[in-house]
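Exam revision sheet. Question 4 asks you to relate a sequence to its structure. Input first:
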Amino acid sequence: MKNLFEKDFDTRRAGQEHFETLLERKNISIKKIVSWDLRDGEWYLQEEDEWVVLLEGSALIEYESELKALRAGEYLYIPRATKHRVKETSSDALWLAVYIS
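Answer key, structure tokens:
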């Protein structure tokens, strides 16, 4: 058994993210993501749908034509082939992401 809120890794550097796969099955993947003061993250154009919830911290998600601000507890659905990126996060932002193919 593990705790979702434990940050059991050593590297914590501004502008970086840590990904941990919690569960992977035929058409679903669940990942824990920790972001540290991320700015202008890479653009994604994924082949799978994504549902993401911000559990701690705050973040800005950027689409090609809009920005969405997220606070702890807020979630969103990103359909496959939707160009997006994490524009910025607070320090130690904690996410839970579910990818569905």
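Marking note for examiners. The chain has a mean pLDDT of 92.
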